[in-house]
Design a protein that fits this description.
Distance between the termini: 51 Å
Strand content: 5-15%
Low-confidence stretches: 1-24
Order of helices and strands: HEEEEHEEEHHHHHHHHHEEHHHH
Strand order of the largest sheet: 3-4-5-7-6
Mean pLDDT: 87
Largest sheet: 5 strands, mixed
Number of domains: 3
Radius of gyration: 23 Å
Amino acid sequence: MRWSRWLIGALIAASVAVRGGFAAVAPLPVLFQSGPGRFEVAAIDATGAQRVVGLADEAWRLLAGPLVLPEAFPSPVFVRLVPAQDWREGGPFRVIVEAGGVVSVRMRWEEAVPENFVRRALVQGLLMRQAVARHGVHERLAAPLWLEHASVGWWRTRSEPAQLDALKQSSERHAPPSLKDLLAWQRGATEPAELSEGAVWLLTLLVGENTRAGEWPALLHRLLGGENPETALAATFPGRFADEAQRELWWMTAWHHLCRARVLPGLEAAESRTELRDLGRFVFARDGVDVVVPLAEVLSQASEAAVDAELKRRVAVLNHILPSLHPFYRNAGLSLAEAVAARGINAQKRAVLVAAFESDWRDATELEAASTRLLDEWERSRR
């Protein structure tokens, strides 16, 4: 947190200008966390900071699985939103890895900043933080361009299920890019739609091909460490292909299957569980310490501005993901949405809503566990 205190101090200092012998003090910066050890956002514009923190929270929830994220990092990804008039750098954002392992994201900020820029900045920061956590700080650390586009695409198609259909329709209009070109894609080159779309399907393939041997986490580890991607792919997915030609055939067959498969976009049971667990878990600062606050207590404080704003944000997220929740978790999602949306009700009615969610949550987790157990038994019986 030493870096965080320095950042706040720097922002405050930068907001003071001496004019005619008097100090003209601009609005002080605000600081938001998406969760301890995840993202920390500092900005002069409180509305902008809240918007970015909402996206950061969504990014973590939806990318925790494919990017094999820990529960939290020892230090978060520090995000600083720099007012557009003060931005002096070339691109819309910059990710910096410091000698001590701190990863920061500087982003040019204005109200109309495209959401895709924000998503890419957060994803690149997350990839570099994961790289530092796995390998320490050295010059070969990498956040592959294809993986950045793949993560942003994964995020969009999970947060907005209709985007999966749009991705399929767009992909069907052209041939798959070569796997060699996709893995070798470098920053500074052009970013054609064929490669950015292909990246999403490649990530989907690699996550789907993962088994208990942990092929995908092993490949991710090598990629973030800066290894040659083709060599790393061959080493971590043995038996899928014999040579480069077979590797391209493996990829192209998967690409055609994935982009033409007619399935309803939705979350797996584990993804749905993670979504609802995070949305039903509230962490607030008390006397400078982050504490988990029970849902019933949060609802009793809904008249407070900060609590009300957070509840409304979670209602919006819940309403967005409800159609894509796994059937095991659909009732739990509905009851949680009803609870966090409730206003002006007495303690008895609040208790009924909380109890309904807790009951639906127990049912959902028991169904998932039973289903997993049966599938594991069936798999063992076939060996």
